Amino acid sequence: MDSDLMPRRRVPEKNDGLPRQYNGYLAGWSRPPDLPQIARIEAMVFPEPLNLHTLVQLWLMPNTYYIVVRKGRQVAAYIGFQKFGPAAHTISMAVHPDHRRRGLATLVQKTADRVAVNRGARWFTGEVRVSNTAQLRFLEGLGWQQIGVCPQFFGNGEDAVVVWNWL
């Protein structure tokens, strides 16, 4: 999609330590040209990916934040989350397969934690497919807890593990 046709959104004003350099990568706020790349990563890694139209709708919402980790112009990792009162809720998070095992998932999650805290969040929550054991282990390593299961949460009928972490 032509970035000139993408809607505009102001970058959040609070100082969250962004942009942030890390081993040749740069973590910062997402921009319109990042959204098609995020949609492609979604399509690569998720059984039910968010499409570009949905990502644009989410990105434009004032309570939604997308943080990306770039290598040059390429999005290597991202997280999208929404802030509701004291809670931050993960929409999706992924690392491009070509950039895995470099600490980018930790970078993007800890950056999102900082952003959420700076906006008044006290905890982070989300849902992870029961089959996504790698993500469940990753979050457990960061101190997240599994607090329940939502039967048939996903469109294909798969259950979700509800995860939660104090900030």
Give a structural overview.
It is a single chain. The mean pLDDT is 93. This protein has a domain at 15-126: Gcn5-related N-acetyltransferase (GNAT) (Aminopeptidase, 3-Layer(aba) Sandwich), CATH 3.40.630. With 167 residues, it is α+β, with helices and mostly antiparallel strands. It has an eight-stranded mixed β-sheet, with helices on both faces. 27% of the residues are buried. The chain has helices spanning 34-45, 52-60, 104-118, 133-141; strands at 20-22, 25-29, 64-71, 74-84, 87-95, 123-129, 145-150, 160-166.
Topology:
Elements (H helix, E strand, L loop, with lengths): L19 E3 L2 E5 L4 H12 L6 H9 L3 E8 L2 E11 L2 E9 L8 H15 L4 E7 L3 H9 L3 E6 L9 E7 L1
Parallel strand pairs: 5-6
Antiparallel strand pairs: 1-2, 2-3, 3-4, 4-5, 6-8, 7-8
Task: From the alpha carbons, calculate the radius of gyration and give it in angstroms.
Answer: 15 Å
Tally of strands: 8
Fraction of residues in β-strands: 25-35%
Overall helicity? 25-40%
CATH class bucket of the domain at 15-126: Alpha Beta
The overall average pLDDT, rounded, is: 93
Note the main sheet: 8 strands, mixed
Q: For the record, what is the CATH homologous superfamily label of the domain at 15-126?
A: Gcn5-related N-acetyltransferase (GNAT)
